[in-house]
Recover the amino acids of this structure.
């Protein structure tokens, strides 16, 4: 059987997400609709949420604060940069994919059902401003195509945030 063209599983969704980004009234509106769309459409994306960097006082270390999300409430509403897979992605500025969270000592448990996770940093004018975090109840749920989809989403939010600044 002929192989499907690369990216075909998510191509329509990317088009829809780009349309969403061009019509969103604010970055917050875009993020709320994006988490819902990803959670509804991608069956293995069981928790989808944004964490944004916040710095209350200049002397304090920045912290990741939970923003729009879809899925069960998480006990981790605020994550310091030296903690968790979320902290690792934000502090290195690189996408982190964990195929089996039970084998990663950095992992902060959000739900007992979570088996794998992807976290993609969001860049605004060259600096990390937050990240998009997705958990799955399936082992190794995030392949190269998922990674490209989530990086595409993070890119759309970064561009939308740039328009505000
Ligand atoms: N698992 C994340 C914490 C956030 S929850 O997944 C929503 C981590 O290890 O940083």
């Amino acid at each position: 059987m002929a192989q499907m063209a690369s990216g075909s599983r998510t191509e329509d969704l990317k088009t829809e997400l780009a349309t969403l980004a061009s019509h969103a009234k604010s970055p917050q509106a875009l993020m709320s609709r994006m988490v819902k769309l990803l959670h509804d459409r991608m069956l293995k994306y069981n928790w989808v949420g944004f964490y944004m960097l916040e710095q209350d006082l200049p002397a304090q270390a920045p912290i990741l604060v939970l923003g729009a999300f879809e899925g069960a409430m998480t006990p981790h509403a605020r994550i310091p940069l030296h903690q968790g897979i979320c902290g690792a992605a934000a502090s290195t500025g690189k996408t982190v994919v964990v195929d089996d969270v039970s084998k990663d000592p950095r992992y902060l448990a959000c739900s007992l059902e979570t088996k794998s996770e992807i976290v993609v940093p969001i860049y605004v004018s060259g600096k990390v401003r937050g990240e998009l975090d997705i958990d799955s109840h399936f082992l190794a749920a995030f392949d190269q195509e998922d990674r490209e989809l989530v990086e595409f989403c993070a890119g759309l939010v970064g561009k939308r945030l740039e328009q505000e600044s």
User: Anything to note?
Assistant: Strands lie at 47-54, 63-70, 78-80, 96-98, 116-124, 127-136.
